[in-house]
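From the shared-data thread, chain only:
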Amino acid sequence: MSTKQKSRLFEIEQESIAPIPENARHGKARELFTIWFGMNMTPLTVVTGATATTLLGLPLLPSILAILLGHALGGIGMALHAAQGPALGVPQMLQARGQFGSKGASLIVAVAIVMFVGYFSSNLIISAHSITTLVPGANSSVLIIGCAALSFVIAAFGYNLVRKVTQLGAVIVGALVLVSFVALFLNGDFWGNVTAGTFSWPGFLAMLAIGIVWQLTYAPYVSDYSRYMPAKSGTKGAFWGTYLGCVTSSALLMVLGASVGLAVKGADTMAGLHGILGPILGLVVLVCFALVAASGNAVNAYCSALCALTLVETFRSGWRPGAKARLVTSVVLHLVGVGLALTAATNFASSYFSFLSILLYVLIPWSAVNLVDYYIIRHGSYAVSEFYAADGGRYGRWNAGALLVFFVGVAAQIPFMSTPFYTGPVARAMNGIDIAWFVGLTVSAVAYIAIAKLAPAMVRMAIPGTPVPALRK
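Structure, as tokens:
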């Protein structure tokens, strides 16, 4: 068994966006835990956590509370998406056709692609920056291209190698993070500034929202990995493995970032961490961070390729993309990601914060519709083969009800938004407190339930319990 698993690591994955056959299902909850624990072991997570005590100016304890609460809440929705993977066996964004229709889902898929490429580019920038912190004369453009090349090689082989590399990164960087905390606690500047900052509700809720959106940005692709879990026994393991892995690592590293930001008084976070750790240990930690981030970035690359193939297949009915199509798509997306990273690096911090805010407003209505449809309306009963039907099958090309709810959910958030480039009237009246995510979630969920109950034809309701026909050839 061990020999077979090793040999599969370096075989090009043949599966693409078609349902994973039952005889190809494998994996356990602990493997999903290490995938998602390792996924967050990047400098980007640390830098984002530093936002609490630097940009938002919060004291340490409120920062930690906002970080923990935000990730714990957002992780529930994210993990509920992951639990759909074993039952349906398809990528998450393809499953959106069950709510929005074959053509309607393309809008959500396009948003997901932008998100994946954005995070891919962000990780490239931060990985390169970790190295230039150690070697100021290093060419950041060359480093960005090198990190992208490493990501491509891993993503090219597919699911098994991506999973194994991410698991290895979780062990390596996880140990170094614990060492970093010890070094931080022994640093006098940390304890001297532990009460610095001023509590504010806008700052607290902004950091809470960052934690929620961090988790929800994984929602569009957690099923891409849990879909390989056994259909009968994998649902519970997919939820807890994904939830505990993703929430634990992201919260842990963001707390580290918030603590470092406090200790270095707003200086560059990764440079500050290097100074706290010392020249030798700092070198080891930052280099490992950069390498793990570059290799772990293959998760974003792999899933963005699946999304892109889903988008293309929408308008090429009957086409079943294979390994070659996935590789070509991955090349194109890597080139786009590198291009964005090279042009955005000079104004990264402000652009990234705005990017997170926008993602939150767009993803909340989609997540609400998906979760309500799957768990409350259809109880997980979908005819998977109909996702691939030329005419959209029983789910149609455009599901008017779901699309209406999506746009209403986005629009409902506008008065409550508080971003660097726009603040809605309600948020302004509340001194910048942003509760748009809560409004969007509530409005979208309630509206979708109402439409599904009162006008089921608008969401083309399938009959729960209907046998799932064989996939059309």
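DSSP finds 22 helices and no strands in the chain.
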